[in-house]
Amino acid sequence: MKGTYLGEFEELILLTVGILGEGAYGVAIKLELEKQANRKISIGAVHASTNRLEEKGYLESEFGVKTKERGGKRKKYYTVTIYGQKALKMAMDLRKNMWAQIDPSAFSIKTSF
Amino acid sequence: MNNAPPKSARFLLKLLCDPHFHEEVEGDLDELFEHNLESFGLKKARRRYWGDVFKHFNWYFITRRNTSGNSQNIFDMWTNYLKIAFRNMTKNKGYTAMNIMGLGVGMACAVLILVYSLHELSFDRFHEKANRTYVAHSTFTPANLTVSSTPSALSPSLQAEFPEVEAGVRFQSRGAFNAYTVQYKENVFKEVDLFYVDSTFFKVFSFELLAGNPETCLNQPYSIVLTEEMASKYFGQEDPMGKVLKIDNRRDYQVTGVLKDIPSNSHIQFDFLTSYTSLTSNFFKIPRWNSASFTTYLVLKEGVKPEDVEAKIPDLVKRSTDEEGLPEYTLEPLLDIHLSSLGVDFDPQPQNEMKYLYIFGFIGILILSIASINYTNLATARAVFRAKEIGMRKVMGAYRHNLFYQFMSESLLIVFISALLAIVLAMLTIPYFNALADRQFVIADLWQFEPIAGVLLIALFVGLLAGIYPAIVLSGFRPITVLKGSFKNSKSGVVVRKFLVTGQFVISISLIIGTVVVFEQLSYMQNKDLGYNNQNVVLLPLTSGIRKNYPAFKAEMLREPGVLDMTLSSESPTKIDAGYSMILKDVDVEKEVMVAGLRTDIDFLDAFQMKLISGTFMTDVDAKSVASDLPFDEKTFGFVLNEQALAEFDLSAEEIIGKRAFMNGRNGVIRGVVQDFHFESLREKIKPMVFMSDQDFNSVLVRISGQNVENTISKIQARWRRIAPNVPFEYDFIENEYNALYSAESKLSKLFGVFAILGIFIACFGLLGLISFATIQKAREIGVRKVLGASVSSLVLLLNRDFAKLVLIAFVISVPLAFFTMNGWLRSFEYRISIGFVPVVLALLMTSLIAFLTISIQSMRAAVANPVDVLKEE
Fold first, then answer.
1. Looking at residue B397, what DSSP letter applies?
2. CA distance B666 to B634
3. ipTM value
4. Best interface-test mutation with A: which of B18, B22, B25, B31 has the largest number of A CBs within 10 A?
5. Where in the sequence is the domain holding B463, given as residue range(s)?
6. Which of A63, B538, B656, B780 could be stapled to A74 by a disulfide with Cβ–Cβ 3.0 to 4.6 Å?
7. Rounded CA gap, B671 and B677, in Å?
């Protein structure tokens, strides 16, 4: 079904937004994800993803209050929608399901949840 | 504030980013900037900021989105228009191809004409002082004859006496009939384009010197400056500077400069310049008013009006000389020379006339309009197929202006694709165009700013013009009418289409008639009885070796079986110079008549098979007297007049023969009168003309028999070699020289022919489109008629009848139109054809044949189709 597909980066963004809870806006997402995944992430990529995810309905957004920080520009806070949560769950289930079918003896590293 | 993100990056972001995202993006970037500022410092933070800004410039952030529901989503709409336009184009490939071909061919013509016209208009503009440079002309009052030959005293006197004159230069050449022999070691060539010029040459003209000093290179006697091309012709890879060229086997000239090749848009074309100081005879050294073989160019100071200078010349002349009968001197702007009808004498390149540029341009516009009409017609005729789409769009809320823009953009799209095709076609056809226009354009000439900008402008103009009518008509359909299902094109549309088709054929037919008329006049001029026989006459230059041994040479030559006759003259009979004045003595009132003059030997009349009306031609007595040692003014010359000259003196032939006459320093007796013959182009009326027995000859004219011409020529060459071994053998036929007088007309006839064919071709494209459309619309009618027993021929007739009517109407309109225009053109010829039935009949036959072939193919197909195929669907 078109629209339920979740890219790897999109999945990570959704998860990060979930982790951050109330405080998930662009810079925070970038910094948190960089910390979690231990890789460099461009703010442009974050913006592209969050906005696309919002179009797909996985995220919803709300502007925060105007403050003196950031030259008076409001932060845009994201939260994961129910639909987004479902998509994340489906992605996780898919993975779990597939992991379960792997014969543990075939992998040399320890693989259990 | 110093610690801020780069302003320009911010500005760029604001400019390009969709406002929808802007606040979020900018806020986050600013925050990151602060963050980076603390961790890495200002420089790195700014660099990162820039990097981040650029990373936002992808389709996703730049594409504008609708933030509110009520504004039009213009971008999507235009994408849709384009998409629909392309779908329509691919759906009807034949129709699209016809449109694009027609427009492409039309625009290719326009581009080439544009390139040509720009080149013609650019003549001589590359000289720095071009806008204040003038060439001096002499006008002889009684004869009202203007030439560009001026006395040698004109330029020096004007420069000395008039402070308004900044610089001046004189040109002197022996002319095309008296080539120079130029030699470097074993390289010997005949050169015509060699001029003696004043050392001030480079003060007047800005020809580029590759080597040598423009200030000094023409100062010393026996200095020579040559073009790059000549340098490599004579010296190959060697450095030409300082080398020595031998001219006429007499004098050594030292090369003091090398010129860049003369640009093709210079009216003066030359290969060599030599210093004026090399001319040592008194005739050249002392400035004279009674000479007239110099071309004078003058540069006036900034802001000086040429009229003011002209007005002061007569006074100056009066002060400087007692000479009587001097002409009036006038100044013609350098920039006018190329496109004015008056060519400069020594100029080997045919000058153009503004008239021909206008004709070119006008024909270009005609061809373009034929192509545009095709688009308009086919687009409106096909409106039926678009009617449902238009109806739907309107129902879905499209305004009329939306649809108008849609159809306009479709026509612009087609026209711009055609423009690309036009450029490709123009590139491919440049060699043929060069042959037609007698120019040397290369593909690089097309890729200049002006032609490309011109093509785009033409495309825009054609697109708007051709598209506006269909756009108005199509956008005006009422949704109810078109969606009800019984929509047929309106009557008014049909009338407009018929009108436009008629217009196309008016243009095509007129072009054909024009072609035939120009062609007829040309062949009339080339075949007219000129009063002398110009067939099989070979023109050779007279060299000093041959002059010395002429009687022996002639006797030897006449022994050759192919050689019939031989004579000497000053010029070829196709271009006899005017500018003599003859005063008749032995009459009550002396009368002076301006005449053209030709110096010939006594065999000339017979060699050219001219008719003597009365008296004799010049005789041995005259020849002997002239050849004797007597001083010039005591010799007795023989004069022979033509009928025009006789008429000017207002005497009968019997009365005038035997009378003494005086002609430019020569005393003589009138021996006879010859029948008028054409010694200029047929544009000119035959002028008064006199043969004289002066022996200052330049050319040998040999009449040969028409058989075995090549063999005879090679025999003449062998004889020539024996007498003048170091002079190259170069010859021409008088007939070719005569035909060269009509190079403009022959160019025009070819041009007209090509454009007429293109015009017909494009018009037939349109016709084909219309007829195929008509047969689709009438398919059921044809089916029913066939079922009821109509024959194929009657059906073809039915379909063709409408179009036949249009061609006939076009014919009726175009015949008087073409007659009127072509008669105007013919009036510029003193001797001309009258337009008879031939052009009209030819045009009618050609047009109808092509048009009927075009439409019959389509109508035949419709008429032979099985009626079941078209009727089963209802």
1. T
2. 8
3. 0.84
4. B31
5. 354-525+742-871
6. A63
7. 18
